Amino acid sequence: MRRAAREQSSGGRTGAKALVESLERAGAQILFGYPGGNVIDIFNLLPASKMKFVLGRHEQGCVHMADGYARATGRPGVALVTSGPGATNAITGLGTANMDGIPLVLVSGQVPLSEIGTDAFQEADMSGICRAVTKHSFLVKSADEIPETVAEAFYIATHGKPGAVVIDLPRNVQREICLAQYPERISLRAYHPECPVPPGSAAALAGLVNRARRPVIYAGGGVIASGASADLKALAEKAQIPVATSLMGVGAFDTRDPLSLGMAGVYGTKAANAAIASADLVLALGVRFNDRMTAAFPPERGVKTVHVDCDASSIEKNVPVSLGIVADIKDVLTTISSRVKPARHDEWLRRLAALARRSPARRGTKGIAPADVVRSVAAAVGGDAIVVTDVGQHQMFAAREFPHSCPRRFISSGGMGTMGFGIPAAIGAALAMPGEKVVALVGDGGAQMTAEELKVAADERLGIVFVVFNNSSLGMIRQMQERYFVGNFTNPDFMALARAYGLRGVRVEKAADLDRAMARAVRAKGPVLVEVKVDRDARA
Amino acid sequence: MQERERIYVLSCFVENKPGVLARIVGLISGRGYNIQTLNVGPTEDGTVSRMKIGVLGTEKVVNQIILQLRNCVNVMEVVCRRGR
C-alpha cells in the first residue's frame, strides 16, 4: 500500500505505459505492428497514444512498412510485434533495413522473465536470433530500464552507420511499475560513432581531385543518409566531375543533370561503368563496393580510389583504396569545397556522353517492354513521385529508366534484395508522406510474397499505384538460368486479388493502352493495382 | 596470391553485460572463422570484461574483424597481437 502511494507520487506507471511514453518522446509518429499475447498490455494503451497505429497483416510487412517510412523521411521507423512467431517473422524486415543502413527500432514482446528458457508458449530467443541481422539489441530485465533503453535504441539506430535495433520486452516487465524518467542526455559507455574529418585528409583529397584528369564520383546510400546531396551537386558542378551512383545511391544526384551517368554495376549503365573502369580517380562516397558493383569491373584497375564512409569497416573491405577517410560525407564535402578548384574535363565528359547515347536497349519482341512501363509511369506522374520497388528485373528498370531527381524518393531493398519489400514499403512511405504520389513497382513474384498488405493500403485509403510487372515468371532467376526456368511459377488472377483486398484493378495487355491506363491510375484517389503483361524475354 | 594465415590474439575490453560474449563470438564465427582460444574475465573495474580471442586468419580478414568489433555497441577497445 505504501509502495503504491510512493509510485503514484513519483510518476510511477506500468512498464507498458513507460514504453509508449518513451516511444512518443523519442519522436515516433507512426507505430507499425501486429498484436499478440505478450504485447497485450502495450496494445491496450495505443488508442490513447499520440502515435498513429497501423495494423499490418504479417510482421514482415509491418517491419518493411516501418522501413519504407524511414527511407522516405530519414527518421527511424518503429514497429511492434509479439514474441515467438511475431518476432521471428520480423527477422527478414530487420535484415533488410540493417543491411541498407536504415534506422529502425523494433519492440518485440517476450515471455515473462521467469519463463525464459523453459520453452514457454510463443517463446523464441529473440536476442539470439536477431543478432546477425541487427546493429544492436536489448533484453529489458526491469521496468526502470525502459525509458533509457528506448532512448539508447533510437540513438544507436540513427548514429554512426544507421541500422536496426531490437528491444525485447518480457511481459512481466511491461506490468511492473517504472519510476525512471526519459533521460535528457544519452551517453553510451562504449559506443562513440562520431567521426570528425581527420586532419590533413581534406587537403589530401582536394589535391587528388585537383590533379585528376578523368575523375568520377561514385555516390552511394551514405550520401543520402548524410544529407549531402546538395554538397555533392556543388562539388560535381564546380570541378565538372561526372557522377555515377550505386543502387542505394539512386536519387543522391539528379539523373537529369548533364553530369549524371546513372547507376553503375552489373545492371548499371554503360556510361557509369565505363567511367569507373577508365577514370584516373574514383571518388567513392558512402558506398560499400558490394559484389553487384565490383563484378562489373576487373579487380585490379590501376585506378586511384578514394573511399569516404562513416563506417571504418567498409573501407578496404572489398576493394583496395589509395585514400580512405572515415568521416561523415557531408562534413568531408563541406571541408573540401573551398579547396577544390574549378575545373573542366571537356574531353572526358564528351567521351562519356557518347557512351550514354549508345545506351543498351536490350529488349525482347513479345509484349510490352518493362522499360516502357517505367517510362509510362514517369510520364504519368510528371517525373515526380516516390518510387518504391520490389526486387528483380523490374527493380533494375526502375532504377535506370525513371528520371530520379531527389534523395529519399527511390526506395528499394539493395543489400538484402528482399522480395516482398515493395508493397509494404510503399505503404510505409505513403503514410510518412501524405500528399505525395507513391508508385510501387513490383514483380509478379514479390507481389505474392506480401500481397496481404494491400488491405492496409485499402483501409488507409492510400493513393498508391501498385504496378505489377507480370511476365509469368521470376524474370531475374530465369535470366540467370538463361534457358530453363525450373519449377512451375503460376500467378493468381491479380484483378480478383485486387478486388478481394478492396483495390481497383486494371489490366494492361497492349502497349497502346499503357499510357492512358497509367495516367488514370495515378489520378485515382485510392489505391489501384495495375497489372501489366510484360515481355517475358526482356532482360534487365 | 594467397595471404598467409596466422593466429592473431585480439584483446577486447567490453562492457560486462549479458549477451556481449555471444555477440562477439557470433561476429567472428558468422564470417566463417574459427576461434582457437577464448579467455574471458572481469577487469579491476567489475563492469568491464576483458576477452582474449585467438583467431586463425589472414591479416586482411583479421583487420576486418577488428574494425567490425569496434563497431559493436558494447566493445570499448580492441588491441591485436600477431602470433604464430
Question: What topology does this entry show?
Answer:
The complex is a heterodimer of chains A (540) and B (84).
Chain A: H1 2-9, E1 13-14, H2 15-25, E2 30-33, H3 40-43, E3 52-55, H4 59-73, E4 77-81, H5 85-89, H6 91-99, E5 104-110, H7 126-130, E6 136-139, H8 146-158, E7 164-170, H9 171-175, E8 177-178, H10 201-211, E9 215-219, H11 221-225, H12 229-239, E10 243-245, E11 260-263, H13 270-278, E12 281-285, H14 291-294, E13 304-309, E14 323-326, H15 329-337, H16 346-357, H17 370-380, E15 386-389, H18 393-401, E16 410-411, H19 422-432, E17 438-443, H20 444-447, H21 454-459, E18 464-470, H22 475-481, H23 494-500, E19 504-508, H24 511-523, E20 528-533
Parallel strand pairs in A: 2-3, 2-4, 4-5, 5-7, 6-7, 9-10, 9-12, 10-11, 12-13, 13-14, 15-16, 15-17, 17-18, 18-20, 19-20
Antiparallel strand pairs in A: 1-8
Helix pairs in contact in A: 2-8, 4-6, 4-19, 10-15, 12-15, 13-16, 17-18, 17-24
Chain B: E1 6-15, H1 20-29, E2 35-42, E3 48-57, H2 59-71, E4 75-82
Structural commentary:
- The complex is a heterodimer of chains A (540) and B (84).
- Chain A is an alpha/beta fold and 540 residues long.
- Chain A is built from 24 helices and 20 strands.
- The mean pLDDT of chain A is 93.
- Chain B is of the alpha+beta class.
- Chain B has a single domain (6-82), classed as ACT domain (Alpha-Beta Plaits).
- Helix content of chain B is 27%, strand content 43%.
- Chain B has helices spanning 20-29, 59-71, and strands at 6-15, 35-42, 48-57, 75-82.
- Chain B has a 4-stranded antiparallel sheet with strand order 2-3-1-4, with helices on one face.
- In chain B, a hairpin with a 5-residue loop joins strand 2 and strand 3 (48-57).
- Chain B is globular.
- The mean pLDDT of chain B is 91.
- Chains A and B meet through strand 6 of A and helix 1 and helix 2 of B.
